[in-house]
C-alpha cells in the first residue's frame, strides 16, 4: 500500500467520523428544540355536534389524557376517551400548529329504541344511555331482535317505512326473531295500531313484497270488513288474512251475541275466499309460506 493510498483512507475515515458527530449533535439539538415549552399544547378545541354532552367536562377529560407536546402527544388515548361517550359515533383528533389539539365529533343518529332499554343508530350501532328520557329518544319506533341482526333490522326498516307511508301511517314496532321471521306494528291517520305478520324471506316471496301487497289492498279490505283490520297475517304467497276490526258499529241486522264483544278476533281472508280460494285480484291463497 502506497503512502498516498493510506493518506486517502485516513482522510475518508476522518470525514465519515465528522459526519457522524455532526448528525449526533444535530439530533441532540433538534431533540432539545422540540421539547421546548414553545411546543406545549395550550388549547383543545372540540367541534361537531356537542349538544348531547357537557363540553367543559369533556375537555377536562381530554386534558387528563394528554401526554406530550405538539410533536410527541399520543392522540389515541384522547380519541378512545371521546368514543367511550355513548352518543359519539366517531372522533377525529388532529394537531393544529403550533399549540392546539382539535377533536371533531360525529354524533350517533338514533332511529329507534332497541329492545326497550337501548337505542340503535342509523348505522345499526346499539348503544345504552343512563335513561331514555331524552328529547332524541322521544317518538322513536321500537325495534327488537337478536343483537347480531341489528344491521339487518336497520336495512329492513327503510323500504318497509316507504311502503307504510303510502297508507299515511308509520312503523311503531319492527321485530325479527332469531329464525328471521319479521313483523311490524303500524299506526297513523285512520289506521289504529295494527300488527302485521310478515314471516321470513324465501326464494319465492320477499318480506317487502308481502307488505306491498297489504298496502295495495288495505283500503279495499277495510271497506269489506267495515273498518280497519284488527291484525293482518301476510305470511302467504300472493295473499294475506285479516281479523275483524276491534270495534265494529252495532246494527239491528248484526247485533252482538250475548257475552261476546263486537269485533272478536274471527279470521277473515283478505283478498281470498277461503284457505284455497282464488282472491279478488286473481291470486290463490296457498297457506302460510313461512
Automatic annotation (TrEMBL):
Stretches with biased composition (Low complexity): 253-281
Q: Name one Pfam family in it.
A: POTRA_1
Q: Which Gene3D superfamilies match?
A: Cell division protein FtsQ/DivIB, membrane protein fhac
Specify whether Cell division is a keyword of the entry: yes
How does this protein sit in the membrane? Single-pass type II membrane protein
Q: Where is the POTRA domain?
A: 39-108
The UniProt keyword set, sorted, is: Cell cycle, Cell division, Cell inner membrane, Cell membrane, Membrane, Transmembrane, Transmembrane helix
Q: Which GO terms describe its biological process?
A: cell septum assembly; FtsZ-dependent cytokinesis
Assigned GO CC terms: cell division site; plasma membrane
InterPro entries, sorted? Cell_div_FtsQ/DivIB_C, FtsQ, FtsQ_C_sf, POTRA, POTRA_FtsQ_type
Region annotation (Disordered) ranges: 245-290
Q: Where in the cell is it found?
A: Cell inner membrane; Membrane
Q: Which HAMAP family match?
A: FtsQ_subfam (MF_00911)
**Of which family is this protein a member?**
Belongs to the FtsQ/DivIB family. FtsQ subfamily.
Its subunit composition reads: Part of a complex composed of FtsB, FtsL and FtsQ.
Q: What does this protein do?
A: Essential cell division protein. May link together the upstream cell division proteins, which are predominantly cytoplasmic, with the downstream cell division proteins, which are predominantly periplasmic. May control correct divisome assembly.
Protein name, per record? Cell division protein FtsQ
Q: What is the lineage of its organism?
A: Bacteria, Pseudomonadati, Pseudomonadota, Betaproteobacteria, Burkholderiales
Amino acid at each position: 500500500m502506497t503512502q498516498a493510498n493510506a493518506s486517502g483512507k485516513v482522510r475518508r475515515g476522518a470525514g465519515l467520523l465528522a459526519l457522524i458527530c455532526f448528525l449526533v449533535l444535530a439530533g441532540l439539538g433538534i431533540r432539545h428544540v422540540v421539547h421546548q415549552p414553545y411546543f406545549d399544547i395550550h388549547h383543545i378545541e372540540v367541534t361537531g355536534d356537542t349538544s348531547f354532552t357537557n363540553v367543559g367536562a369533556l375537555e377536562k377529560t381530554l386534558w387528563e389524557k394528554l401526554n406530550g407536546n405538539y410533536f410527541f402527544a399520543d392522540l389515541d388515548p384522547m380519541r378512545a376517551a371521546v368514543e367511550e361517550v355513548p352518543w359519539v359515533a366517531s372522533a377525529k383528533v388532529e394537531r393544529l400548529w403550533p399549540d392546539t389539539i382539535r377533536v371533531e365529533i360525529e354524533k350517533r343518529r338514533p332511529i329507534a329504541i332497541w329492545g326497550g332499554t337501548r337505542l340503535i343508530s342509523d348505522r345499526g350501532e346499539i348503544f345504552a344511555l343512563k335513561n331514555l328520557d331524552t328529547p332524541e329518544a322521544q317518538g322513536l319506533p321500537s325495534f327488537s331482535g337478536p343483537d347480531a341482526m341489528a344491521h339487518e333490522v336497520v336495512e329492513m326498516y327503510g323500504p318497509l317505512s316507504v311502503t307504510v307511508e303510502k297508507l299515511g301511517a308509520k312503523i311503531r314496532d319492527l321485530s325479527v326473531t332469531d329464525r328471521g321471521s319479521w313483523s311490524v306494528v303500524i299506526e297513523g291517520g285512520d289506521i289504529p295500531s295494527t300488527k302485521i305478520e310478515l314471516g321470513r324471506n324465501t326464494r319465492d316471496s320477499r318480506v317487502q313484497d308481502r307488505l306491498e301487497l297489504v298496502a295495495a289492498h288495505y283500503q279495499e279490505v277495510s271497506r269489506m270488513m267495515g273498518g280497519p283490520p284488527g291484525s293482518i297475517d301476510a305470511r302467504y304467497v300472493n295473499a294475506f288474512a285479516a281479523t275483524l276490526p276491534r270495534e265494529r258499529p252495532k246494527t239491528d241486522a248484526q247485533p252482538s251475541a250475548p257475552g261476546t264483544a263486537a269485533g272478536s278476533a274471527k279470521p277473515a281472508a283478505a283478498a281470498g275466499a277461503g284457505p284455497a280460494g282464488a282472491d279478488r285480484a286473481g291470486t290463490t291463497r296457498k297457506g302460510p309460506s313461512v
